[in-house]
Amino acid sequence: MAKEGDLSQNKYVRSLLAVALSVLCFSIVYLFLWGKLFPFSPVIIGFAKHELSHTVIYVQHGASFDAFDRIDACVEPVERFHELTFPRKPHIFVFRDRANYQRRSISKARFCAFYNGSLVIAPWALEEDRKGIIDLSIYVRHELSHDLLFMHKGILTAYRYPKWLLEGIAMYSAGQMGTLFYPDIMTTCRLIAEGSFMPPEYYHTKREESVRIDAEYQIAFIYSEFGCMVDYMVKSFGRKKFLAYMKTLLRDDNHDRVFSESFGIEFDQFLADFKTHARALAGLNDNQSAQ
User: Fold this and answer.
1) Could you read off the pLDDT of 251-268 as tens digits, one per residue?
2) How remote is the C-alpha of 249 from its chain's centroid?
3) 3-state SS track over 223-272
4) Which residues pair with 112 in a beta bridge?
5) What CATH superfamily is the domain 38-155?
6) Structure pTM?
């Protein structure tokens, strides 16, 4: 027969577990409705829903927004370039102020694409577009490139797609090199010839910190570098082979094998050829370029 003290202790433990479970449930609900999991939430509170031909745009109450048609018009060019269609309409979220955006976005950047095909847009990006600092359409096409590949890859495996290639495809397909602080092809190749280069396998790893990049805006240079690599692939092997390679990676995670089978050379050799190509565009030979 259980002692009275043991029963009291068991009741106390059950109470603690109930409180902990309640806190956990509240935390999860908060993250979905008002926190970092917001773009994945099945319930959207405080936003007006606008379903357009190609997109669903949610505008937070109190936000000033009038670019519905411009954003919706970005979908078809993205589909044409990738020769893929969106399995479902991408969901795009517009916020009324910086605090609300930063509370619900995992990134401090102007735009952020999520693995489920959602896209969040920072209010200052809209203001920069109004002032002519950036072109909203270019940036939206960049992020929609990510969303399109994420949707076809699948939410549970989208993170396996090579991150450098995601950025390269997005930069190239959106025509983003040479806009704002992103260096154009010639400037990027000059910087590569002078010794700046982010090895693709280092991108988004701790090894990034060991790489010397002598560019005013390092991340912008890295993105343009990857865009130049895609540009060189298309020019070297043809658009048809490039798109086949891009799509094969949606179902096969072994990048180096897919690359060699797609193009007939090893990826390391391609990188060496690309650097030689960059030096040639910059007007330098191997003896003149930085080692």
Assistant:
1) 999 999 999 999 999 999
2) 16
3) HHHHHHHHHHHHHHHCHHHHHHHHHHCCCCCCHHHHHHHHHCCCHHHHHH
4) 120
5) Collagenase ColT, N-terminal domain (3.40.30.160)
6) 0.89
